[in-house]
Amino acid sequence: MKRLPLFTACILLSALTGCNDDVEIVEKEVVVTNTDVEIVEVPLVVEVAQGTNIQLGTRPDYLIDDMADSALKTQLASCKEGPFYRTDFSIGHRGAPMQYPEHTKESYIAAARMGAGIVECDVTFTNDKELVCRHSQCDLHTTTNILAIPELAAKCSVPFTPANSNSGTPASAKCCTSDISLAEFLTLEGKMDGANPQASSVTEYLQGTPNWRTDLYASSGTLMTHKQSIALFKQLGVKMTPELKSPQVSMPFDGMTQKQYAQKMLDEYTQMDVPAERVFPQSFNLDDVKYWINTNPAFATQSVYLDGRDSDAGFDPNNADTWQPSMAALFNDGVKIIAPPIWMLLTIDNESNIVPSQYAIDAKAAGLNIIAWSLERSGPLNNGGGYYYQSISDVIDNDGDMMTVVDVLAKEVGVIGIFSDWPATVSYYASCNKMPAAI
């Protein structure tokens, strides 16, 4: 045991709580006897990887300040000085698209700097069958400047048509990655997702960013191929969660079958020397997930079934009879991770508390790990939160409720990660609760 003069001890404690990139967070007991200080180290809580440089900004503080008084608010407020670090609990949904154009280099870098230990590239393909990062095969008209480039706009599946006020027909267009080549794709710039349905011109149509987002960082969104995203993620030191997007063209496409498409995505990680344990491949198509499980054993335990069964007629997350296959059947087929929208995991009890849904209870009981999506995607929550909070809208009335939702997902549902459009929020919670650091 060390005995240090008070002045020396204060300098040491200051250094331990500084902003070095390589930080070991250690619980310490400090005993003061007259002018001597005894520092007793207890077991290591978490070790932060070198070069993380996590920056969370002021939004987590805003959300905490907006919470109703509670023990959770007090606990979270006690962490405002950090230290903050990267965890796999925080997943960058398309990067950080609340303020940066989704699936762009800038958005991915922002997510990593906000502590996301895992970052997502949604994967689709061009007309020369090259894999690129886009949320949908046919969203270029709302997420890029393609309509402002006449020679590329002419290749769109559905050309731009202005709104017709007489008939009430909204403005429309449909531009797909499969309409253009990889070389043409890489000439585009990403913009904030959105379109103006009342537009009478292309310029007006492209100005559709929701008013709770911003165009401040959308002046030059750098689009990326799947391989370019892999290289960037390796450089940033984050894990990767590619989502195989459902084709909006008939398969096979120019000879490429669905299975070849699914395999090509994994092959690019192997080609770029990414260990399978750093990859969480996802799909809403259960057959894709089963294909990976059965033919790519190295990727099997981290393959993620994105559950979109809420679109099925009569689906009820509190009635197991309304979803098939059952959680047990999924587990028996080799599925290890299931990822539903937030609302499917939560319900309200008789005391108006947010609690796990039957869906969440059954998934855990079957042995499935759970990832939730997507926080920070609904805009302000003073109107109940929209789609992502529909099962608990009666008790959602301010942005601070997001932190309560994260707490229930973490401690009661037991999710292993949360997708967020602004990863700083989840990163703050994870650091404050001393979750394991990303490796």
Short structural summary:
The chain has 439 residues and is an alpha/beta fold. The protein has 16 helices and 18 strands.
Overall description:
- By secondary structure, the protein is α/β, with parallel strands linked by helices.
- It has 16 helices and 18 strands.
- The N terminus is likely disordered.
- Helix 4 packs parallel to helix 9.
- Helix 13 links the parallel strand 13 and strand 14.
The oligomerization state is single chain
User: What overall form do the CA principal axes indicate?
Assistant: globular
Q: What is the β-strand count?
A: 18
User: Into which percent range does the helicity of residues fall?
Assistant: 25-40%
Beta-strand percentage range: 15-25%
> Which regions contain 5 or more consecutive residues with pLDDT less than 50?
1-51
Helix tally equals 16
What is the terminal separation in angstroms? 31 Å
Produce the secondary structure layout.
Layout lengths: L1 E4 H11 L6 E11 L2 E13 L10 H7 L5 H7 L9 E6 L12 H9 L2 E10 L5 E3 L6 H4 L6 H4 L4 E4 L10 E3 L7 H4 L3 E2 L11 H4 L15 E2 L3 H11 L2 E6 L13 H14 L10 E2 L2 H10 L1 H4 L3 E3 L20 H6 L4 E3 L6 E3 L5 E3 L1 H8 L3 E7 L25 H13 L3 E4 L3 H9 L7
Parallel strand pairs: 4-5, 4-18, 5-11, 12-13, 13-14, 14-17, 17-18
Antiparallel strand pairs: 1-3, 2-3, 5-6, 7-8, 9-10, 15-16
Helix pairs in contact: 4-9
Feature tags:
globular, single chain, alpha/beta, disordered N terminus, 9-stranded mixed beta sheet, 3-stranded antiparallel beta sheet, about 450 residues
